[in-house]
């Protein structure tokens, strides 16, 4: 569990700017926020050490790389106490990109990305169904992602 860290307006501004462009130099970000690049470096290090900032990711157009199928799968667990064990097994499947523990009908809701329908069938039939603790699944195939964005961070 991370320690409670007091964040000020500058921390929130840094987070917001970095969510828009994680490649911005500390010097350029400092100029934009009217502080030194060294201050930005120290603040980002503090945010990383606290666990608030967790690496930087490259945005990739998966369709351009041939990954044409995105599916969301509602998982019914045999028992809710099996969540941790099932999540551990799901993490071993490379096509699973997101796992959420949920309320409502499903015990878990996952997102998977596959090259084609045959790979989706393989993941559903040969991978998910062999995981102990999964009772059954419901699959929803995404036809299009209209947009994806980060949340706007309040600065005060």
What fold name goes in the CATH topology slot of the largest domain? Alpha-Beta Plaits
Shape: elongated
CATH class of the largest domain: Alpha Beta
CATH superfamily of the largest domain: Lrp/AsnC effector binding domain/regulation of amino acid metabolism (RAM) domain
Strand order of the largest sheet: 2-3-1-4
Please summarize the sheet with the most strands: 4 strands, antiparallel
Number of domains: 2
Reading the helices and strands in chain order gives HHHEHEEHE
Description:
With 156 residues, the protein is of the alpha+beta class. The protein has 2 domains: 9-50, Orthogonal Bundle (Arc Repressor Mutant, subunit A), CATH 1.10.10.10; 63-142, Lrp/AsnC effector binding domain/regulation of amino acid metabolism (RAM) domain (Alpha-Beta Plaits, 2-Layer Sandwich), CATH 3.30.70. The chain is 34% helix and 20% strand. It contains 5 helices and 4 strands, in the order αααβαββαβ. Strand 2 (96-101) and strand 3 (108-114) form a beta hairpin. Helix 2 (26-33) crosses helix 3 (37-50). It is elongated and about 55 Å long. The two termini are 24 Å apart. 13% of the residues are buried. The mean pLDDT is 92.
Give the helix/strand layout.
Elements lengths: L8 H12 L5 H8 L3 H14 L18 E9 L5 H8 L5 E6 L6 E7 L2 H11 L6 E9 L14
Antiparallel strand pairs: 1-3, 1-4, 2-3
Helix pairs in contact: 2-3
Protein name: Lrp/AsnC ligand binding domain-containing protein
Organism: Parasediminibacterium paludis
Keywords: DNA-binding, Transcription, Transcription regulation
